Predict the structure of Pituitary tumor-transforming gene 1 protein-interacting protein-like.
Amino acid sequence: MPQLFAFLFVLLCAVRGAASASAGFSTASPAARPCDGQSSCEDCLANVNCLWCDSNQTCTKYPLSYILPPSSVCPLAKAHWGVCWVNFEALVIAMAVLGGTIGLSITVCCCCCFCRRSSSGYDREESSITRRREEARQRQQERKAERMSRHDDIRKKYGLVPDSDHPYSKFENE
């Protein structure tokens, strides 16, 4: 929440600076332009410490002890700070919407990144399972070859292998 108000302050200062530069106003220091005695919104808001109230057309010092000016000083719908064409209420609503949109965007981006990472985790798990299956298949083939070798040795030992050079082989008619 403090970041939102800091962002609000920076944005207002930037808008105020752009508006005063385009209107040809020079920014005076607060000591040179007191808030009391200003008769127009533009003159009042040339000083960053001042707040213009439309309800009674007065320029007052911004109450720095509060984040938002209390209604006893000026209602939010009638208070202007930074620029004359946006009241404080609209400014707060716009900043809340902007902050919510940025927060939602960051949340969506984080969720998307998390989903990508978790799907890559599934890919890694799937490749690990495939690798284990391949290793098991190779071990099975090795055991099968070893078993066949032992069976062939036993067949040779007892003369059950059909060799042509074996002395006890059957004669075949050709």
